[in-house]
Amino acid sequence: MQQWDVIIIGAGAAGLMCAIEAGKRGRRVLLLDNGKRVGRKILMSGGGRCNFTNIYAGPENFLSQNKHFCKSALSRYTQWDFIALVQKHAIAYHEKTLGQLFCDDSAKDIVDMLLSEAKAANVQIALQQTITGVSFADGRYTVTTAELSRQCHSLVVASGGLSLPNLGATAFGFQLAEQFGLKVLPLRAALVPLTWQPADKAVFEEISGVSLPVTAEVNGTVFPEDMLFTHRGLSGPAILQISSYWQPGDEVIVNMAPQTDVADFLATQQQAHPEQEVKTALAKLLPKRLVEKLLELKVFTNQPLKALNPKSIKQLADNLHAYVFKPNGTEGYRTAEVTIGGVDTDYLSSKTMEAKQQPGLYFIGEVVDVTGWLGGYNFQWAWASGWVAGQYC
Ligand SMILES: Cc1cc2nc3c(=O)[nH]c(=O)nc-3n(C[C@H](O)[C@H](O)[C@H](O)COP(=O)(O)OP(=O)(O)OC[C@H]3O[C@@H](n4cnc5c(N)ncnc54)[C@H](O)[C@@H]3O)c2cc1C
Asked: pTM of the entire structure?
């Protein structure tokens, strides 16, 4: 039977960070993963350039049943700490937009950085491990695979969420939490495109590829970003963000011209070009192919601007500032970036990430009910929660 101080299940962002920190403390650490390589989500994140953190990251950028839980870890290992690590390894990076930091070259730089830190901290890594059972007796955990059993004092679960099952995602962490009596809050795909109702699909799939800046709102939460029409539904950053707040049956209210007062715009156009058609005027504000679809949907009648009266101008402006989509659903875990829900934070210490009722068992990263917005926040949670657990496990 192999003996370890710490076994970490999941060699993703959180698991690697935790392993490095525990290793630095002189703990004998084994990092186990079911895949052929470590950090597979890091490698494909941010379009291959890894949006590794956000300079504005704070607790308000996270969803959780207990919105205070993430505060401790985020304040003890901040975005500036991770940026310092990136700088120490001379990795070139840039801010893309809204505080989002990306590698200049490749996400592989981040994985290589973590691997070199792990090596320096003497972390051992075992890949392609299929865990068949975990048990606890006499203060030690036994982790069994087909080949052998290993024991440890501290078991850290960093197995992530359910998104991208073809990349090794499993429900392992949630099942293990339940095995040890921790509650798992309902799971759903988030940061995910929304899909059309059949009637909308028939109209809008023809303009797939069209994108425009909007604000998207669900139940009072609003995100200003780009929205993209696709064959299957709506996507783009505004929609991915709002998907985390969307529940089946909810409407998404889209302001198609957030920067312009459409009523003022139409009144001005009417004065300047009374003979111009409404659709020509609208095409100065919105993509032409979208305007044609709105005409097809009778959102407006095409007529010379001079035929509009203040009431019809207001009606049209209201329609464009609050266009209502009623999605059919989401694209699900196949394309989602994250999983909402997970191990109930009531069962964990926010200081250590250890299970309150089960000494030596820790949960970190996405398996926990803390989910970030799009924009580097999810990695920041993985680094911060991994770092915190690494100080204690
Ligand atoms: C396409 C995509 C792009 C993304 N881009 C960004 C981005 O740019 N910025 C950002 O902040 N976030 C991004 N995210 C989200 C981010 O990748 C995750 O939130 C983050 O990786 C979570 O870290 P984690 O360590 O908790 O889990 P993961 O990184 O998912 O790691 C979990 C590890 O556990 C392993 N595992 C699972 N089950 C088992 C098991 N039974 N036995 C052994 N090992 C197991 C998995 O193979 C995996 O290696 C993206 C996600 C996706 C899917």
From this structure: 0.96
